């Protein structure tokens, strides 16, 4: 019997609601598929920050490093600035564990009305660079409080960083329809994006079977709504990948269904799995959060651990619940988080 | 009779096709409304660049400074890198003439099937900051050609710059439904966007009648497709405004219909009017480019010049042509650029 140690960080708001469901469903899958999970629950969240001034303990990274993976709910709360909660937990984890790939698949799920009536299919994987780019600590503010005040924000793109995400995306594209779209803005952002284009083109030259098309982010955003079925695999920088993946999820019907895998493909460090949605304080604790993003992320975690059959069982279960018309309010249904979870459990095989 | 001197820069590709139509329609409007335009046609484009190494003459800015406005088609050609063509003409014009507001209205036009069947209305104005932010010349590359190579791209946000775009947007919002959405990413981009949020909030405090809501760019992109009717006026940074305005145009059915006014509100310098679409080399010269973005931009120019009745005549004419089912192929019709122009001319009043 394989046993995995997973650090679970429910976090804030509906992060707690959906992590609770996800852990129980994973345990149920584990029992059916003859493996087990030891959950190490971490109360690293905004409450901890308010008490200690830190989102995680000083040795938080060392603690997680001994596990097989990290499962994260969501982080953020209205009374603490988001840059503090996120840069105190989520982003350092992505970076310290070199989770340089953020994989964000999205499909039109059975029974789910997408935002575009008539759209019959959608199957897009966003491969987002996850540790560099537009999100950086370099920069700051000058002349705070004066009329002359300005802020600088440095984006950092490395050859190594672009090369490795391009390789990963090329392989994903090759395993799908062989078409890769690279999101860029090389006409407006003149130092980093032309470099991105160059390195993507050089890397993709090693994959003659993959056709790469570079598309400006503004035109690409429009294409997501105008011709979503022309898109299959997208490789994008940290910021562009963030925007595109939410946009694709919006087309598919709800941010609540979107999963995110923060991967260290070499497995030198634990990878981290999370729903894309935020902590949604307005609906936290009301029992109506959509657990699909969390369940799909859990399935990606099982896949990453090598428990492919278990991953499929979980995915099929929530798809079948949806196909049977069971859905939370954000998808137009009347199910609660808990009744949706019950429906999933009944359908596990 | 008022007379205006307008510099017309058709540029490249379909920029030439649509500028040709726009100038003729503006002249026809002028005749009907008793004003006149002296067009100074400038052949500043990629061909000029290939001959001279410059997109415009050394004293290009001085030449334009003497006019009442600038009308631009589109710039860009496959065999010259976009960062060169754009940073050689479009972006310096926006900056030298301190056109710090980029106004991008979008509506669901009569007869036009948006990308979202069932969507009944859409009326959004994106107020984009146009001279600072993520588009900057600061930055560069280190270790070119080595494995260690990296690129830095600095985003620059000033208190002055954010304040003035926020004021402008607040006034637009006040003249509409009183609701303003501010696009941000203050949880991921930690130096510039929290500053953006602060200055927007401070500025908007002077407009108690305007309700401001800050929305993360990823969630906002999703909201554009999920709940487009909840959006009216959006204020955004240079990059975010670029992405959002194309996205909204995508929802409304075509990038070919989107106009853009680059404004120096104080009128110390000429303002510039252009369709949002690019030079589309693939369809250039084929006579099928959609001239609506160009005509709408021309109407915004007339409005800016104070020729409000003329502006309305032009807008009503292309709307009425559309309502009568006349449309170019990108909108699902069979009209050519020219036959659409004919239909517009017949409807001018
Ligand atoms: C061509 C490009 C630099 C430009 C921009 O991003 O500003 C264009 O996309 C626009 O929106 O006017
Ligand atoms: C919370 C935020 C910093 C984060 C990001 O932008 O990476 C989130 O939007 C995501 O997509 O995981």
From TrEMBL, chains A, B:
The keyword Metal-binding applies. It catalyses: (R)-malate + NAD(+) = pyruvate + CO2 + NADH. Residues 5-344 form the Isopropylmalate dehydrogenase-like domain. Its EC number is 1.1.1.83. InterPro entries: ICDH/IPMDH (IPR050501), IsoCit/isopropylmalate_DH_CS (IPR019818), IsoPropMal-DH-like_dom (IPR024084), TTC_DH (IPR011829). Transmembrane segments: none annotated. Keywords: Manganese, Metal-binding, NAD, Oxidoreductase. It holds the Pfam family Iso_dh. Belongs to the isocitrate and isopropylmalate dehydrogenases family. This is D-malate dehydrogenase (decarboxylating).
């Amino acid at each position: 019997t394989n046993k995995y140690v997973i650090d679970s960080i429910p976090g804030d708001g509906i992060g707690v609601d959906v992590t609770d469901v996800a852990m129980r469903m994973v345990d149920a899958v584990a029992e059916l598929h003859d493996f087990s999970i030891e959950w190490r629950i971490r109360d690293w969240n905004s409450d901890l920050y308010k008490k200690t001034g830190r989102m995680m303990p000083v040795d938080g990274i060392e603690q997680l490093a001994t596990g097989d993976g990290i499962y994260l709910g969501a982080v953020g709360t209205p009374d603490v600035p988001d840059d503090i909660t996120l840069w105190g937990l989520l982003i350092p984890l992505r970076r310290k564990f070199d989770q340089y790939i953020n994989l964000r698949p999205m499909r039109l799920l059975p029974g789910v009305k997408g935002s575009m009536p008539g759209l019959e299919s959608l199957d897009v994987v966003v491969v987002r660079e996850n540790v560099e780019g537009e999100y950086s600590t370099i920069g700051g503010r000058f002349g705070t409080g004066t009329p002359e005040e300005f802020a600088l924000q440095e984006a950092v793109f490395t050859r190594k960083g672009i090369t490795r995400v391009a390789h990963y995306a090329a392989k994903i594209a090759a395993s799908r329809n062989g078409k890769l779209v690279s999101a860029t803005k090389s006409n407006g952002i003149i130092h980093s994006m032309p470099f991105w284009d160059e390195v993507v083109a050089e890397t993709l030259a090693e994959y003659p079977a993959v056709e790469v098309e570079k598309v400006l982010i503004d035109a690409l955003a429009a294409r997501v709504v105008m011709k979503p079925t022309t898109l299959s695999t997208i490789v994008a920088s940290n910021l562009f990948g963030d925007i595109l993946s939410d946009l694709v999820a919006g087309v598919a019907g709800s941010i609540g269904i979107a999963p995110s895998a923060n991967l260290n493909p070499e497995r030198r460090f634990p990878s981290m799995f999370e729903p894309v949605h935020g902590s949604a304080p307005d609906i936290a604790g009301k029992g109506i959060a959509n657990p699909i993003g969390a369940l799909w992320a859990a399935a990606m975690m099982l896949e990453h651990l090598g428990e492919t059959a278990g991953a499929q069982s979980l995915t099929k279960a929530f798809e079948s619940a949806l196909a049977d018309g069971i859905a939370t309010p954000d998808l137009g249904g009347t199910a609660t988080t808990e009744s949706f979870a019950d429906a999933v459990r009944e359908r596990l095989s």
